[in-house]
TrEMBL record:
Self-association state and partner proteins as the record states: Homodimer.
Gene assigned in the entry: purK
Catalyzed chemical reaction(s): 5-amino-1-(5-phospho-beta-D-ribosyl)imidazole + hydrogencarbonate + ATP = 5-carboxyamino-1-(5-phospho-D-ribosyl)imidazole + ADP + phosphate + 2 H(+)
Name of protein: N5-carboxyaminoimidazole ribonucleotide synthase
Enzymatic class: ligase
Its EC number(s): 6.3.4.18
Entries under InterPro entries matching the protein: ATP-grasp (IPR011761), ATP-grasp_carboxylate-amine (IPR003135), PurK (IPR005875), PurK_C (IPR040686), PurT/PurK_preATP-grasp (IPR054350)
Protein family (similarity comment): Belongs to the PurK/PurT family.
Length: 393
């Protein structure tokens, strides 16, 4: 796996159960997967010599991020290396403009868009489609980065970005009800599987919760989203996972927002919440094993990201975990061994149950506690112990 972040770390955990050994290409020894994998090679994803040496002897090469240059990928393929997903498919997850154009050709609904070569292009698009508009970096943006919401033309910003060599596109701001995601997997010879469509809850452009299945989503609409994701995986030639991020407009229409061809934040809930996790399924697909069942293990599953706090937290991470388990022994915790800094994803929690509202509340409390060492509802473990002692007396 090229990349050694938390996605590679969790893929490594799945590989162990399958009797596989995951080699990771790491930019540094402190990266999450590099701390736990036995086979770590140092190197950058854009260093062809390092990637070639890394790939030697591997049954297959895959990714925990899309930022691998096309010339590197194509060189590996020319060398006879099995690369999943291949460069032709991965391009649609690397380049938003190429993706938008191809999806339009395939008849998938996307927001109106246009390429940007000058500030005048943004102004003309806004005049035609209305303001606000969304300015996007064509490559490299994630978690709200590389995205600018413009209420009016901003020539200075556009000129600055273009001068810095940032390729840009502009699209219509969608009247948004919520964001959804359809996650599927596809093997090299076309076997495919889909998990339930989920709702991804966003704050400041970053996913904070995933609700599985998406509450209140019409069954036919959900099935249509799954069929769309499966059709796109086939049409684009994806091997491995494909996450299709969707906008649900206020009128109920679904539009495709982004594509990812790797394990995805919207699928972390599957570790405990589905018969086969996204990480195991990605390995099954890449290695051409028959795919696993995607049946949920509970009626309601919520994943909440643990984000770095805005300021220093006095209590150690270990203490926070201790107190969380004392209150919520059923909450599953996944920590990525990443240094804490504001808004950085340093872990996630997963809660399962029968009632979505109750499960979501517990997940939110748990994630906030692990981030800040503060119970958002004012609960205190010391107060609970004192009350228990009083009752016993």
């Amino acid at each position: 796996m090229i990349g050694a972040g938390q996605l590679a770390r969790m893929t490594h955990q799945a590989a162990i159960a399958l009797g596989q050994s995951l080699r990771v290409l790491a930019a540094g020894t402190g990266e999450p997967a590099a701390q736990v994998c036995a086979d770590v090679r140092a190197g950058a994803a854009d260093d062809l010599a390092a990637v070639r040496a890394f790939a030697t002897g591997c049954a297959a090469v895959t990714f925990d991020h899309e930022q691998v240059p096309q010339d590197v990928l194509r060189a590996l393929v020319a060398d006879g290396v099995t690369v999943h997903p291949g460069p032709d498919a991965l391009l649609f997850a690397q380049d938003k403009l190429v993706m938008r154009r191809r999806l339009s050709e395939l008849g998938a609904a996307v927001p109106p868009f246009a390429t940007v070569g000058s500030p005048a292009d943004v102004e003309a698009f806004g005049a035609e489609h209305g303001w606000p508009v969304v300015l996007k970096a064509v490559r490299g943006g994630y978690d709200g980065r590389g995205v600018w919401m413009l209420d009016a033309a901003d020539p200075a910003l556009v000129e600055e970005l273009l001068a810095a060599g940032t390729p840009l596109m502009v699209e219509q701001a969608v009247p948004l009800r919520r964001e959804l995601a359809a996650l599927v997997a596809r093997s090299p010879y076309g076997q495919a599987a889909a998990w339930p469509v989920v709702e991804t809850v966003q704050e400041a452009g970053q996913c904070v919760q995933v609700l599985a299945p998406a509450p209140g989503l019409d069954e036919e609409v959900a099935a249509g989203a799954q069929r769309l994701a499966l059709r796109l995986a086939d049409a684009l030639g994806v091997t491995g996972l494909l996450a299709v991020e969707l906008f649900e407009r206020t009128d109920g229409i679904l539009l495709v927002n982004e594509l990812a061809m790797r394990p995805h934040n919207s699928g972390h809930w599957t570790i405990e919440g589905a018969r086969t996790s996204q990480f195991e399924q990605h390995l099954r697909a890449v290695l051409d094993y028959p795919l696993g069942a995607t049946t949920p293990t509970a009626p309601a599953v919520v994943m909440a990201n643990v984000l770095g706090a805005d300021g220093p937290v006095a209590m150690s991470v270990d203490e926070r975990v201790h107190h969380l388990f004392a209150r919520f022994p059923d909450v599953k915790v996944h920590l990525y061994a990443k240094a804490e800094r504001p808004a950085r994803k340093v872990g996630h929690v997963t809660v399962l149950g029968d009632d979505m509202a109750a499960v979501r509340a517990r997940a939110a409390l748990a994630a906030h506690w692990l981030s800040t060492a503060e119970w958002a509802d004012g609960w205190s473990i010391h107060g609970a112990e004192a009350e228990k002692e009083t009752t016993n007396a």
